[in-house]
Amino acid sequence: MKFRTRAPSSGLPHSPSPRQRAWQRFRCNRLGYWSLILFIGIFVLSLFAEALSSDRPLVVKYKGEWYFPIVKVYPETTFDGDFPTRTDYLDPFIRDRITSNGNFAVFPPNRYSYDTLNYFSKEPNPAPPSAENLLGTDDRGRDVLARLLYGFRVSVLFSLALTLIGVLIGTLTGALMGFFGGRFDLISQRAIEIWSSMPELYLLIIFASIFTPSLALLIILLSLFGWMGLSDYVRAEFYRNRSLDYVKAARALGLSNVQIMWRHILPNSLTPVITFLPFRMSAAILALTSLDFLGLGVPPTTPSLGELLAQGKANLDAWWISLSTFAVLVLTLLLLTFMGDALRDAFDTRLGLAQLRGRAEPKAPEGSPAAEVTP
After folding, report:
1. Residue 53 β-bridge partners
2. What number of other Cβ atoms are within 10 A of residue 188's Cβ?
3. Is 182 left (phi over 0), alpha (psi -120 to 50) or beta?
């Protein structure tokens, strides 16, 4: 019988991988780390906006039968109404029918959707904040809190789509220019310079006057220009890495250009791509908000932060519209900026963990007992 013996342990601690070291550096930046947690939490809540803010109940038990209006549209006759049209659950008659005589309904915390018009409201629009509308209503009687929640979701999803497309195009073009160089790089650079000189805003105005405004159209138009900044960084990284020894060894082993670019150079050139993401998302949210403010963005029926800012400008006495929208926009951009700064420090190998902790933690005043203790 043969026995396998284990190799003696060297006693050295396990060395973390580059990704683990980057994550440790990122967590040392408390502001960036908690900004990431808060941003993800708010975004996840916005994904379930229909369950948090809607004019339809989540579930209704009426005469022993169960109904789920949040996922299915029921006619008014289902609840012994007079018309076979879509049920208006804000109607006092319908509300009384589904909440009395042993019936019950579970409503979302906010009983208004982004497009709900409360025809039974006694307040003139725009109405100030109240117990029924926590952040008031706009000039059409729509709940501001609901439009902010849905508008935040639209803005983040739009920025994610625009950032993903820009990263794919910018990384591909930068990788090709940096890897092959020479005449291909020279011609590509001149073509990018010509394309970047195109008046982006004028093109948006022209296309908005020809086609029906939509999120898909905006994503296509803005994607045509949003990749050029990243391509310069990726190009520089490929230029620097293509002459290193591990690339020469890969060539000597007979690997193809695609294998060398994809498996060897690209993983070592992702630092500018990762640190670029939060700032690109901020730019995309600002672009969408600005276009909506000018009336060149999404259709009027789509909830938008820019449309709310335009309403606040048109109704200066309704301070709650501008104030709440501005607060959501500033908070979103601040969180993304803090995340971007933390990512930049996390991938800066010149900074050690001690330096990052020193940035994140306040220094003890001189002469205090904590300042005299050395780690």
Report:
1. 110
2. 17
3. left
Cα 294 from Cα 296, distance rounded (Å):
6
CA distance 211 to 235: 35
Tell me which residue of 95, 116, 119, 115 sits closest to 107, measured CA to CA.
Answer: 95
Flag the least confident range among 11-20, 87-96, 107-116: 11-20
Look up the pTM and report it.
0.83
Q: Which residues contact 82 (CB under 8 A, 6 or more apart)?
A: 76
179 vs 262: CA distance, rounded Å? 11
Asked whether the predicted pLDDT for residue 298 surpasses 80, the reply is yes
* Superfamily per CATH, domain 145-356: MetI-like (1.10.3720.10)
Cα 24 to its chain centre, rounded Å, is 23
Average pLDDT for 162-187: 90
Residue 133 Cα to chain centre, angstroms: 26
Residue 355: its pLDDT value, please?
54
Where are the strands (E) in the chain, listed by range? 59-62, 65-67, 104-106
Q: Domains of the chain: which residue ranges?
A: 145-356
Burial of 374 (0-12, 13-18, 19+ CB in 10 A): exposed
| Pairwise CA distance, residues 269 & 271, whole Å | 6
In percent, the amount of the chain with pLDDT more than 70 equals 88
Closest by CA position to 170, among listed 333, 289, 256, 279: 279
Task: Report CA-CA distances (Å) from 319 to 129, 197, 212.
Answer: 10, 39, 31
* Phi then psi dihedrals of residue 337, to 5 deg: -65, -45
